[in-house]
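Researcher: Let's try something more involved. This one mixes different molecule types, so please make sure each is placed in the same coordinate frame as the others.
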Amino acid sequence: MPGDPAKIFAGSQATDTAIAAIRAQFGFDKPLGVQYLDYLAGLARGDLGTSVRTGHGVLDDLTGRFPATIELILAALIVALAIGVPLGVAAGASARRGVERFARGVSTLGVSIPEFWLGLLLIVVFYSSLDIAPAPVGRLDIGVPAPDGVTGLITVDALLAGDLEVLGNAAGHLLLPALALGLPAAAPIIRLSAEATASLLRSDHLFYTRAIGTPPHVVYLKHVLRNIAPIVTTMTALIFGFLVGGAVVVEEVFAWPGVGLYAIDSLHYNDYAAVQGFVLLAAAVYILLFLAVDLVNTYLDPRKRLT
Amino acid sequence: MMDSRSALLEMRDVSVTVRGAGGEVPVLREVALDVGRGELVGVVGETGAGKSFTARAVLGLLPHGARRISGSVVFDGTELDTPRAYANLRGTRMGFVPQNPRLSLDPVFTVGSQLVAVIRRGRRMSRTHARKRGVALLTGLGVHEPERVMRSYAHQLSGGLCQRVCIAIALANDPELVIADEPTTGLDVTVQRQILDLLRSQLVRDGRGGLLITHDLGVIATWCDRVAVMYAGRVVAIGPVADVLREGHPYAHGLKGIAVALEQGVEPVAIPGTVPTPGDRIEGCAFAPRCAVATDLCRADDPAPRPYGDQLVRCHHPVADAQLPAVGHPTRSEEVEV
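Model: All components are placed in one shared frame. Result:
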């Protein structure tokens, strides 16, 4: 990040004294080592510093925008899982070449298409041409009030409040970015669940399950899904990390007011504290997520439980 | 013995191929065997002889890439030729005991839930009721603390205990036929004896039939009424256990020699040569290259099954015990390799 944040903050007309004052205000005049120690000390108190762009505390900025990103990522995950798991299981179970090729094609397409391009394509088709999607700006139409709620996820809050109008509006805004982010993420899930299903069907216990008369739909809906669940859960966590990165791009395309858009805008502004805050937040989410996966897998796979 | 009127299960010239690198490879070749009511029929053979494929062909669950190209499986007078014919057969009228019970029970469900699922497939009843019946079944099979076993996962139980659970699952709906594929592999000798005694007593009672697949002739000799000897995908001899082991097919005789030697604690002399692997080109009798009494006829012509005493053997020169050279069983001390 080359450039001087104080100069950008002060604007092109600023005098040298004004810039120096800003440097002193944010501590940019101190040696780098001292700045770093100051940052760490702040971090210990839960202070992520101040954004030179917004003038607010970075922590406040992030917490205000975080629910939007989480909503987007969760919706994308639902899209990815809803497409990836059934298609993957079908591909892994099918003796027919066609199903396997179709799944392979979809997943190859998925890994090759960048999210921003898919996002633009969706906007061109569903907003510009067909005009069935809302304008790709933000989470709600202008004038629609955001519901009060604890989660900060507008769709969930609207559902909890029983406000179907807001729910529909929010879901409409969420759909395209969730597809843009989720469809590419379905690719690795298809691959993985296909492989897991195929190897499961070769296993002793799946043969036995069928040999003792378990009907085919129970074999797949109960035994196969339950057996591949730990693998899919672990994969979901990996994909979550991948989605945090993808969300930065998708939020930019859809003007989605989340932490990704905040990080990009901060980057353009040489806003060190804000960018660092975003990176820290992503890392923290990642760590918490893997902890959660370990806990969930302990529940899903009895062999991992301590006796 | 071979009376088809009373036959519960009849395999008629079943041939199965597996899709391999070089095309379709035969793994079962015109397998014919039958199981009557109240009898336990053993299937014995070396690894690769087609024992497990035989079990899978009866169950209608051939592995991916394998298919039945000819022949028929008739169960209680009904031909099992479509997946539909198997509906409501497995787990209810046809029980199955697996080779490796600890790996066969689904690891992510308790063994009790798997037992309950099978019981409820047989007859409509509440979960609680089915659970009670499961506990009763396990108790009847000599399982201590059946309640605790029901709540356990397969990896928490010993192999012998898992096998009792599998037997309970196999017998849960009073099946007419039980297929057991190497049910005691990996279990120690005492547990093996208990499991096989249990299986036999459960089968012969009530006139059920059983198909016991094993590579252990000792098991066949102790627990089976009749035996089918398999070699290179064929049933080469079938008949009453004592007859088959005494005389007839030279291969069965060779196996017996090895079994007797092992029992006496002497080093057995292996039958010379190796088992053909599926896909090998077989001309004439598959056993001819390893057979002490083979002739040019054997090498040129694959023998059709023919009666020999109470047996059916696929051999041009079925021979009486006395005529056979001592293959497998060492009679002179210098033959014993140390």
